[in-house]
Amino acid sequence: MTVQFLRVGPSPLHETAEQHMVPMRDGTRLATDVHLPPAPRKHAAVVSRVPYDKSSPYMAIHKIAEHYLARGYVFVSQDVRGKFRSEGDTVPFVHEIEDTHDTLDWITRQPWSNGAVAMVGDSYHGWTQWAGAASGHPALRAIVPRVTSLEISDLSVLAGSGTDHALSLYHAKYFAHMWVDQGLYAYEVDWSVRPLRDLFEDAFASIGHRSAAVDSVIAGRPLTDPFHTRHPFAARPVPVLHRVGWFDNLIDASLRDHTAQLADPRWRDHAYLDADACDHHTYHLSQAPVPDEQDQALSESVLDAMLPRYLGRTLDFLDAFVLGRGEPGAFPRAVWFQGHDGEHTAASWPPPAARELRLHPARGAQATTSADGGTLTESAETTTTAVRWTHDPLNPVPSPVRDPWVHLKEYPQEQHTHDRPDVATFTGDPVVAPLDLVGPVTATVSIETSAAAGHLFVKLHDVAPDGTAHMIVRGQRRIEGGGPRRARVDLGHTGYRLRTGHRLRLQICGSDFPLYAPHPGSDGDLWQATAFSPAEQTLRIGGDHTRLTLTVADGPAQTPRRQPS
User: Fold this and answer.
1) Closest Cα partner for 20 from 78, 69, 63?
2) What is the rounded CA–CA span in Å between residue 43 and residue 462?
3) What pLDDT score does 87 carry?
C-alpha cells in the first residue's frame, strides 16, 4: 500500500552563519555553521551537534546563538553524519565519538579559538555531548546534556525478546521517521499492522529508502552501542550540568545518568542537576495543556520569551566552568522547579531532609470497578487479596497521550482510562496539607500472568477535587509468566506538589498502546508475533505484596526561590 509522506530537507542557511564542510578522519565531510561574536579576539566555543537540521526553524540555532555570542562565545552547530547537509551513511550513534573528537580538533585549530570548548543540546544532541566526553578530547571543558541519556544508544531495549523492557513503539517510530536518509519523513503509521515487523514496510517502500536502525532491531541484531567499549565515565572527567524535565519521557534514564555519575569516584564532584517541570520539548506544567497562542513552536514571540529561561542556567554554568566568571564552587548542586510551587535549591538531589513514604493498595474488590477503584493507604491490609483482570492484546488499554515528546502540550485527562475493567486503580484520601514529592518513585508489584510473558505498566496520578486525573510519573517493564513474581518498577524522579484537597492514584495494567507494543502472550519475538491471546493477570495486595514508595519532603529541606508564572 502506498503511504503518503512529506520529506523535509535542509532549510536555507541563515545569514548570520558561516558554513564549513569539516573533514572527519575517514574523509566524510560534516556541514558545520560558525556564529562569531563581534569582538575580534580569541573565544571559547560552544558546540551543538544535531541530527534535526542546524538551519531549521525548529532548531532556531540563529536565535540561540545570539545568547551565546552576547556572553562572548563562538557558537558552532553541526549536522551529524548522514543528516541534512552532511555527508555519510545515515546511521545513528555509531560514529559520534570519533566525529565529535574530530570536530573539536577542527575548532581548536581555527584562528578565533582560544582552545576551550563546551557542548550543549537536547535529546540526541545531548547524547553527542556524552560522545564528546567519551572521546577524551583535551579541549572539552564542560557539557550540558538536556532531556537525554547515555542509554538511548542501547537499541537492544527495542528488541522483541530477551529484555526486561516493554517494547517502545514510539521510540521505533522515531528512528523510522528520522533516520532513513539525510532528510526526515512525516507520515501516519497504521498501528493495526501485524506482525509488527511490517509496521513501517509500506512507508519504506513508498519512500524508497529504509532505516538501518529499525532494520537492525527487527532483525535481532541492533546497532552496536559505542558506549559498551568506550564509556564516558572511563574518560577524563568534565563538569556536567544534567538538565532534565519531570514530564520528559526519558526522565527515568536521565536521572540514572546523574545517579551513576554521583556513584563514580572520579566523576561525582563534577555532577550538577537542573530539573524543570517540563516535557521533552520544553512545554511547562504551569501552562499545561498549552494553547496554540502560548506554543513556542507556533509563535516566534513566544519562542523569544521562552529562550532566556531555557538557556539561562546553561549560560551561567558555562560562564563559571569554561570562562571562569564567578566562583564555580558557588554554583548550586541541585536546582529544580517543584510543580505547582516554584523553584528550589539544595545541596543534593534528593534534598538532604527528604524521607521515604510507603503506600499500600487496599480494598482490592473495588480495584477494577470504577476510576477511584480501591484505596491507597500508609497501613497495609493484613490479609492477601487477589485482583484479576484480562489483558486482551487485540483490545489494549489506549495510550492517553498521542505524542509523548510533548506530554504537557496535550496534558490529557486520564480518569476515563481508569474506568476500564482491565485497569486496576487505588486512590488515596484528599491530603489536608500540600505533599511535596522530591525524588525517586518506585513500585514493588506482586504480579502473575497466565501467559508465557507480559507487560506491566504502573502510573501515579494527581486526582483533583473535580475528579480529573493527570499523570505525575510512570514506569513499565516486561514480566515473566508462571507463578507470582515480585516486579520492581522504576517510575523515575519528580519534583511535584500535591495540593491540598488532591489525591494520589496508583494505576496498574498490562498495556499502553500504541506507545508500547501490546504483549501477544507468547514468549517469542514481539516484532514477529502473529498469534495474540488474552491472558489473565493477577495482582496480589495486602501485607508487603505490593507497595508504592515515594520520596517526600520532610521539614525545611528546600528554599523557595521563585513562584510559578
Assistant:
1) 78
2) 48
3) 98
Residues whose CB falls within 8 Å of the CB of residue 447, separated by 6 or more in sequence, listed in order:
456, 479, 484, 485, 487, 537, 538, 539, 540
Q: Rounded distance, CA 384 to CA 424, Å?
A: 16
* Gap between the Cα atoms of 143 and 137, Å rounded: 12
Which amino acid type is present at position 407? H
Give the mean pLDDT per block of 10 residues along the chain (565 residues): 97 96 98 94 97 97 97 98 98 98 98 98 98 98 98 92 91 98 98 97 98 96 95 98 98 97 98 98 97 96 96 97 92 98 97 96 98 97 97 98 97 97 98 98 98 97 98 97 93 98 98 97 94 97 97 61 34
Contact yes or no for 22/106 (Cβ under 8 A): yes
Tell me the three cell numbers of residue 248. Answer: 520528559
Residue 396 carries which side chain, given as an amino acid letter? Answer: P
- DSSP string over 432-501: SS-EEEEEEEEEEEEEEESSSEEEEEEEEEEE-TTS-EEEEEEEEEEEE-SS-EEEEEEEEEEEEEE-TT
d(Cα 120, Cα 442) in Å, to the nearest integer? 30
Amino acid in the structure at residue 510: G
HEC string of 87-126?
CCCCCCCCCHHHHHHHHHHHHHCCCCEEEEEEEEEECHHH
CA dist 312 and 330 (Å) reads: 16
Radius of gyration of the chain (CA): 24
Question: How many CB atoms are located within 10 Å of the residue 230 CB?
Answer: 15
Distance separating alpha carbons of residues 357 and 110, to the nearest angstrom: 55
Within a 13 Å sphere around the CA of 373, how many CA atoms are in the beta-carbon half?
33
* Listed residue (471, 428, 439, 472) closest to 553, CA to CA: 439
CB 317 within 8 A of CB 272: yes
Phi, psi at 498, each rounded to 5°: -85, 115
Cα–Cα dist 54/78, whole Å? 6
Q: Is 133 exposed, middle or buried (0-12, 13-18, 19+ CB in 10 A)?
A: buried
